[in-house]
Design goal:
Strand order of the largest sheet: 1-6-3
Structural class: alpha+beta
Number of strands: 6
Largest sheet: 3 strands, antiparallel
Strand content: 25-35%
Distance between the termini: 14 Å
Radius of gyration: 16 Å
Order of helices and strands: HEEEHEEE
Length: about 100
């Protein structure tokens, strides 16, 4: 999360701090692996080379994909990350993800 140092609106600052306290850190999302492909690129502004990305399966097919042991984060450029996975025709391999420690790399 970036801090806008020019922000002087105290009620808005308080709202943002409260949002973080409730777990609203803008570091989560949902992605579905592309069917019949071996990579899926996820556009996520908070991602960077230093990011730690955790994937949690939301469907049975996503859990099976993860359990197969061939899925991994293969690239983490600024603003996106790429998941390498098995070539499969399933269209419901859906995951939630958390991206932390992004930094400025």
């Amino acid at each position: 999360m970036a801090i806008d140092r020019s922000l002087t609106d105290q009620p808005r600052i308080n709202d943002e701090i409260n949002k973080v306290g409730r777990g609203g850190q803008d570091n989560v999302g949902i992605c579905t692996l592309r069917a019949s492909q071996t990579t899926t690129t996820v556009i996520f502004v908070n991602s960077s080379l230093n990011a730690h990305i955790s994937l949690t399966p939301l469907t049975a097919n996503a859990a099976a994909e993860q359990a197969a042991g061939q899925m991994f984060i293969s690239s983490r450029p600024r603003g996106s990350f790429t998941v390498t996975h098995r070539n499969n025709a399933q269209i419901d391999r859906t995951f939630s993800f958390e991206c932390t420690g992004s930094g400025a790399a």
